[in-house]
Amino acid sequence: MAKLLAEKNKLENSRLLYLILSGLFISALVTCNLIANKFVTVDLGFKTFVVSAGVLPYPLTFLITDILSEIYGRKRTNNVVLAGLIASILVLFILYLGSVFPAIDDSPVANETYNSVFQNSSRIIFASMLAYTVAQFVDVHVFHFLKKLTGGKKLWIRNNFSTIFSQLLDTILVTTVIFIGLKDFTFIGGLIWDGWLFKFLFAAVDTLFIYLIVYGIRSYFQLKPNEELSI
User: Fold this and answer.
1) Which is nearest to 61 in space by CA: 76, 48, 80, 44?
2) For residue 52, what are the β-bridge partners?
């Protein structure tokens, strides 16, 4: 009886953790799309990066998919990636609806302001969705390919290489789709370099976090090496 109760609690906690990680992933993804229309400079001392504000929370999405891949497996992680795509499409549709209905005279946000911030972002959101779909599924695929190749060892290899490669694809796709025909290739290339290098640095930093988080989860659920949680 006690064993059955322990297994039930483990399953409930596993589902709760999966929902929390999924919610954080989708929240970060939607935020990326909503603020992607603003470009900013980020001074890290040794270099000043010119990036979309949407890049700031984006590394979190790759950290979460790598944690999900390690703990819940490829299928469950792909489900979260698909849910993020559906959520992005819904956000795009809602933003469109917001532009269809005219603002009242006393509205704090006028039609011009709304359209400048949100309707102008349709191309950016489309680019983000395209890049996101390709990059996240590639990230999950490469992560599990490297996991199998290394026999489940050397988490830092699959975490870093899957993220670095997939984020390169993401940066190339999103920057090219947004600016092709609007800016020259020198400008586009500069943004690709800054965006990818910025993501690369954060990918390297999050190695410590993924080790701590994965170790904490495996210890809490008493998982064996390479064992995945059920939900």
Assistant:
1) 80
2) 39
What is the per-residue DSSP string for 122-151?
HHHHHHHHHHHHHHHHHHHHHHHHHHHHTT
CA 18/CA 36 separation, integer angstroms: 27
Give the chain's end-to-end CA distance (angstroms, integer).
21
Long-range Cβ contacts of 215-221 (<8 Å, 24+ apart): 217/17, 217/67, 217/71, 218/71, 220/13, 221/10, 221/13, 221/14
**How many whole angstroms separate alpha carbon 83 and alpha carbon 78?**
9
pLDDT digits (tens, 9 = 90+) for 201-228: 887 888 888 889 999 999 999 888 888 8
Sign of CA dihedral 100, 106, 112, 118: negative
CA 85 to chain centre: 11
